[in-house]
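Q: Given only this backbone (310 positions), what sequence would you predict?
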């Protein structure tokens, strides 16, 4: 079993200016990993390649792809009030999506491999037609569709523990019974979606599960709800591949959230997800960085998650 760490310094070129989602996030994470020599020796570094237009347009409309390209080429600074861009952002976003795809390639080549992609911009808010919420392309959904097309994966399980609900991921697979989307998140909170009653539609009804949590929910209650939901999901949907939308803004002290998780909780949740992956999907897990904005805490949280992946 190998643990693949997917990263490229080009991710630092997505220039968002004075903004919570900035390049210092990745630098903080890399410092924390480098300080642990034992962990670092277990990692297999991978350099990603950009996702193709075809890869991205499996989940996004072509006109959205072209609009982001155009805005970046013109030197625009915003897609919306929350989502900052620069001239390099289009190419960096393609690279982030490509890193998610590279994670799939890495774990599908051998039984039990795992991957963590340290990427930006994040992705889980981007819908079929709109980039939003710091996100340009929806990396997790691009990876899920790629796994199905390239490797014939039948059941992909997306676990999202970011403090914000992944409205884009939910929308993209809303009617799809081949991808199960599960989210724990602060509610009500940005983007306003993720109520318990949102469970999919058509053939996809029952293949979305949201656990909305109030700000200040005790970490033990949060983790208990997470574990109980996983037990329910596993009975219905034994996955062939697990993708984690790994947002660490659900950590206590994050400036953009009000949940109370600690580093040990991320480790416990990681191990619980791994147990399901090992039982049903040969241990294949791809984790993709989403949120996490307290620079003094983020490195430790990601380190705990990565250590649990080993």
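A: Predicted residues:
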């Amino acid at each position: 079993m190998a643990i693949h760490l997917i990263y490229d310094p080009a991710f630092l070129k997505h220039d968002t200016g004075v903004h919570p989602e900035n390049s210092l996030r990745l630098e903080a994470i890399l410092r924390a990993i480098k300080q642990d020599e034992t962990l670092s020796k277990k990692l297999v570094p991978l350099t990603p390649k950009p996702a193709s237009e075809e890869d991205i347009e499996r989940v996004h409309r072509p006109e959205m792809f072209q609009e982001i390209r155009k805005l970046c080429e013109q030197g625009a600074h915003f897609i919306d009030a929350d989502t900052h861009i620069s001239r390099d952002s289009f190419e960096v976003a393609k690279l982030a999506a490509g890193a998610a795809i590279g994670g799939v390639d890495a774990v599908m080549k051998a039984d039990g491999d795992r991957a963590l992609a340290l990427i930006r911009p994040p992705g889980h808010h981007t819908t079929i037609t709109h980039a939003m919420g710091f996100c340009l392309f929806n990396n997790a959904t691009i990876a899920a569709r790629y796994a199905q097309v390239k490797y014939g994966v039948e059941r992909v399980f997306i676990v999202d523990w970011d403090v914000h609900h992944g409205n884009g991921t939910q929308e993209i697979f809303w009617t799809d019974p081949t991808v199960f989307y599960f989210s724990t998140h602060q509610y009500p909170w940005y983007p306003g979606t993720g109520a318990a009653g949102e469970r999919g539609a058509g053939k996809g009804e029952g293949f979305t599960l949201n656990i909305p949590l109030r700000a200040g929910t005790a970490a033990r209650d949060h983790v208990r709800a997470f574990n109980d939901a996983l037990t329910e999901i596993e009975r219905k949907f034994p996955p062939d591949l697990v993708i984690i939308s790994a947002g660490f803004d659900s950590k206590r002290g994050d400036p953009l959230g009000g949940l109370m998780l600690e580093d040990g909780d991320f480790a416990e949740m990681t191990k619980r997800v791994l147990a399901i992956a090992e039982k049903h999907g040969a241990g294949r897990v791809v984790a993709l960085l989403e949120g996490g904005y307290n620079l003094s805490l983020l490195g430790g949280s990601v380190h705990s998650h990565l250590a649990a992946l080993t």
